[in-house]
Model the fold of this input.
Amino acid sequence: MPATYRGAPRLTSAAPRTWPPPHDLLVQGESLDVMRTFASGIFELVYADPPFGTGRDQVRRTVKARSAPDGRPGFGGRPYALETVGETRYSDDIADYPAFIGPRIEEMRRLLSSTGTLYLHLDWRQSHRTKLLLDEVFGEECFLNEIVWAYDFGGRSTRRWPAKHDTILVYVKDPSRYHFDAAAVDREPYMAPGLVGPEKAARGKLPTDVWWHTIVPTNGHEKTGYPTQKPEGIVRRMVSASTRPGGWCLDPFAGSGTLGAVARSLGRPFVMIDQNPEAIRVAASRVGATSTRRRSATAVA
Ligand SMILES: C[S@@+](CC[C@H](N)C(=O)[O-])C[C@H]1O[C@@H](n2cnc3c(N)ncnc32)[C@H](O)[C@@H]1O
Done:
């Protein structure tokens, strides 16, 4: 970590003139345009959770219950109705996904340091064709893992197997130099602790490439109300394993700012980018970012 790093994030629309800056950055802008203004090889981790290409807007509404004589019966039999008091949304309609994600994969790779790792968070809609692009841009030898994040929430189709997992594709910049610290990762309870003995059972086991983790709980302290917010627990695993303290982290699709919140808690400096002013507002309040006066985008020297 640079000696001058103070950790107070700055809200900006520009890359800093010199690298590293003395604070974390939250940049409002289009991911490709903004990434192109940063110097090569400066991030130890990129966590990217782009739109999945669902073809519709992602929306989260905040609702409040109010008493309503003609509403449904609630607590104590008193009738109530739900009223929408707020809404956040972003567009997830991308006609040509490879044309969208391809150039951004190239930029993410350019920005990684020689010990760096990319975690690209997708689901069944685009993970297969995106993996081919990743192989092309990084090289097949740089593929590290396909992580399955399995959760159990929401409706269940009875016409097919209900889809309850996301896919996180992991690629490293250099397969002979990448950083990976298994000892820094939280451990999981054994499924059959009686089979491994008390000492091992107490230590738990190293997670595999299948991560069972709840979605962000509705009433949990993490919940921001931003659509498609990811749980800190899964991002913490990535940051803990693939960065050292002081290693810069980048999230080019910040949303509610999960990467920033995790990086901050682990003592890693970060840059987050999002083009949606609503995301910037939520992420800024989550990580305590303050505004800068500079407005024009500037390349890092
Ligand atoms: C899936 S959400 C990210 C959620 C985030 N990981 C979290 O935990 O809250 C994707 C985000 O990408 C942003 N986005 C979509 N296209 C973008 C682009 N071309 N440039 C920058 N941000 C973009 C959207 O505004 C949205 O906030």
